[in-house]
Amino acid sequence: MEQIIKIEQIAKYNDLKGVETKHPLISVFNNSDTKALPNNSRLHFDFYAIFLKAGNCGELKYGRNNYDYDDGTMVFIAPGQVIEVNNPIDYKPTGMALLFHPDLIKGTALGKQMNQYSFFSYDSNEGLHLSLKEQQIIRDLFSKLEYELSQSIDKHSKNIITNNIELLLNYCVRFYDRQFITRENINTDILSKFENLLNDYFQSENAQDTGLPLVGYFANLLNLSPNYFGDLIKKETGKSAQEHIQLKLISLAKERIFDTTKSISQIAFELGFKYPQHFNRMFKKNTGYTPVEYRNLN
Prior knowledge:
Layout: E1 3-7, H1 10-17, E2 26-30, E3 41-45, E4 48-54, E5 61-62, E6 65-66, E7 72-77, E8 82-85, E9 96-100, H2 102-105, H3 109-113, E10 128-129, H4 132-149, H5 157-182, H6 184-203, H7 206-210, H8 215-221, H9 226-237, H10 241-257, H11 264-270, H12 276-287, H13 291-297
Parallel strand pairs: 1-3
Antiparallel strand pairs: 2-9, 3-8, 4-7, 4-9, 5-6, 7-10
Helix pairs in contact: 4-5, 8-9
GO molecular function: DNA-binding transcription factor activity; sequence-specific DNA binding
Organism: Flavobacterium hercynium
Protein name: AraC family transcriptional regulator
């Protein structure tokens, strides 16, 4: 049976790993020098955690496809998230770890923009896969944080630490953009499947039965987290997944409005709208005409 471990403070995680706590709100360490976490357990974090795994990380899959990078993997965990630990018997920790509490970045520029780093909500199988050069950049930033924590705390410490964390995260944004590009074939396949799922949804009675489709619905069918799926679609097409859904709705609405045997309310219901006035508002916002005006014009 899995053991559930709630970790509110960074010091508690350090204790599990056999690491000295140098600062109550942040910890940086080389994982190779630490103990393995309790196996067959689930860890609930109340802080941010970033892990860089060195060397071959084992078999990792993206949907049904194997990852093509095995030089190193970064995994990001946000407060409130849970990770499962199921390592082989002979497993030895590798790489680097950075933990920081939300209290560390309160009132800073980084604290105000943490929501923009959507990869903290990616699933663990959607980690960031690094080349050796990219790994070195990340290792250098970990080392700078380690150095700063080894110094006496002064009035500059917080700014230097948070600025380095922000720089690390911004590099990760760049590397994720590269990852989306290098996986162009996989991305195209996902985009194609998304289009097919959209068509299937509206050709069936799903819309009438369950209403307007959500981004999470398609992400789940594609075995992706909503954030990763949304970012992938945005990078690939320049439009968000929600915009794609809305464009499909408008396209179908324009076609069905030509069928004068159906009322506007009936068409709205078939497309998944609970209230016809919501359909009217969306249609006019996107076309400049109400559904009735559009029908009359055409």
